[in-house]
Amino acid sequence: AQTVTQSQPEMSVQEAETVTLSCTYDTSENNYYLFWYKQPPSRQMILVIRQEAYKQQNATENRFSVNFQKAAKSFSLKISDSQLGDTAMYFCAFMKHKTSGSRLTFGEGTQLTVNP
Amino acid sequence: DAGITQSPRYKITETGRQVTLMCHQTWSHSYMFWYRQDLGHGLRLIYYSAAADITDKGEVPDGYVVSRSKTENFPLTLESATRSQTSVYFCASSIRGQRGGYGYTFGSGTRLTVV
């Protein structure tokens, strides 16, 4: 079974600064996908970024980027130029590489607060 | 485009009562999922369904029942609610055969309180 661990329950950052959220996972799979989801106070789950394990290049989406270290089973999220709207719970998630309906396994979450 | 709708958004029920949370999707996605979200645990899978009339247990299925008579609906029933089932419940869906792991589309969640 896969496990995902987020060791930082809470983090805070000043507006316009950079913050990194940590995530580690455990799996015996070689091919898989990793995700970061954002959950603002509205409770909606929003996909921030995804990474395919067979791609060495780190994924980026505007101010969001990841540092994917496959051998270390680490998948951290970097948020640059933090904005007040980035305040949310962030979840790291793992999915096996399958063509049909793979299940997502989530970490415990990190509550990020961006301070003005 | 309504996507996935969950109802109700909030629910308070008494211990021992049966309660059903509704989930409806408009995309004809084959796969649907129910998760519960609890502080310190993230989201945990309760049940999932690969298609109409096909369901399977997830990580925490005890005390829950699901059905899927139609592709678009996937209700979750708590047969006899307990306080430990106080949680936020999310329904999600994904496309069958979708290579690339694009993750799920989530509903907006139901906050259930059992008193």
Which labels suit this protein?
heterodimer; A: 116 residues; mainly beta; Immunoglobulin-like; 6-stranded mixed beta sheet; 0% helix; B: 115 residues; 4-stranded antiparallel beta sheet
Describe the overall structure.
The complex is a heterodimer of chains A (116) and B (115). Chain A is mainly β. Chain A has strands at residues 3-5, 10-14, 19-21, 24-26, 32-39, 46-52, 60-61, 64-69, 74-79, 88-96, 104-106, 110-115. Chain A has a single domain (3-115), classed as Immunoglobulins (Immunoglobulin-like). The radius of gyration of chain A is 14 Å and the shape is globular. Chain A starts with a strand and ends with a strand. Chain B is mostly beta strands and 115 residues long. Chain B has one domain: Immunoglobulins (Immunoglobulin-like), CATH 2.60.40. In chain B, the strands form 2 sheets. In chain B, strands 2, 4, 5, 6, 9, 10 and 11 form a 7-stranded mixed beta sheet that branches. Chain B has a 4-stranded antiparallel beta sheet with strand order 1-3-8-7, with no helix packed on it. In chain B, strand 4 (31-38) and strand 5 (42-51) form a beta hairpin. Chain B starts with a strand and ends with a strand. The relative contact order of chain B is 0.33. Classes of the chains: A mainly beta (116), B mainly beta (115). The A-B interface holds A 4, 6, 9, 32-33, 35, 37, 42-45, 47, 50, 52, 91, 93, 95, 97, 99-109 and B 30-31, 33, 35, 40-45, 48, 50, 58, 88, 90, 92, 94, 96-104, 106, 108-109, 111.
